[in-house]
Amino acid sequence: MKYTKEISLHSRWDVIVCGAGPAGIAAAVTASRLGMKVMLLERYGVVGGCLTLGNVATVMGGVAPGTIRDEIASLLSSPNGETGIDCESAKGILTDLLAGEKVEFRLQCPVVDAYVVDGEIRGVFALTQQGVVLMEAKRVIDATGDGYAAAMAGCEVMTGRDGDGLVQPSSLMYIIEGMDEESTLVCRHEEDDTVFPDGRRYLAMCERAAAEGRLPANVTIVRLYKTGRKGERLVNATQMNGVTILADGDAERSEIELRRQMEMVNRFLREEVPGCENVRVRISASTLGVRESRRIRGRYLLEAEDLIAGRVFEDAVVHRADFCIDIHNPTGGGQAETGGQPYRTQPYDIPMRALQPLHVDNLVLSGRSISGSHRAHASYRVMNIAMAIGQASGTMAAVSVRDGCRISELDYRAVQRSLEEQGCRLRD
To answer: How many whole angstroms separate alpha carbon 168 and alpha carbon 209?
Structure first.
């Protein structure tokens, strides 16, 4: 990348992690614990990504015990990994975790380009208060979610589903208060229905309101999760179809539309749903909840069939990942497959090769942008699995530096030994 002014070398690191969401935090902490000098770069003013700024209190998915996910879940007071995360307190807890593990991090410091020489990433360009600076590193981990660093480095990018390239919709999640404290209404997914005393069914009410224009046409289900506070629910309902969040103006159009949808959803709840007559917004996400954008092609492409079969890989770095193929409909409401119900998976492995990108060396993929198909991505994109992937990526980077080998030359057995020494279970 060419700039109109000279770029100075700002610093040198063993490992630079791009993105401080759940995967990036796990990667940075792991690499630091393994003796690396680590810099974690975050474009927002708070760490945590969708877990904090995105207001995604529903931390879902499963992995084999012993990963850093267990530790982080315990810190966040959600040992079952399902619901109940307090997104506000998580901001401080995760910041303290990074500081306590001696991870250097920079906030409001987006990565703007990759520094690549002869097919090998040597660092990144970051935007600081002093301007654009070069930060060099022996290894770089892309945990941006959108695969930004990998794309800028020249990796092969995949977007959307086969045929039309459409991605899952983005959302804004928010918390309502003022609900009847005696109400037991929850709706966690398309099979979670409530029958009210007058005989009306909640899911049918949502579908009818969407068909008749009282809800947005693509909001056919208003998911409501308990938060741990009486009279509150976390709302997962809004969705923006037809944008990738990668084109200029996508984020702004989505923000306008999703805020408008929030008002429609709240009106529906107040006017039609028993116990919700007095609900109001307590807090809403400060950034879009992006389910899908770039995926980066690696040495292995994880397919939905691998997940459904519960495939075991010789070079596994995450074991017993477990979540349904949760494809929010790219063209409408509800689920995209099997008549509105997601495909169930068997606990599956994620191989090291899916974290090793093609074409660019010494870069490690992490989080939801690893190498997989549109359908496979719909399972491993959730945060518990992303944290386990983050631990694997931090381990790969650290072992590579320690052993003096490129990421493309890594011995998976050395990575597995390190993960097992950290307490991870990689086989039954």
So the answer is: 22
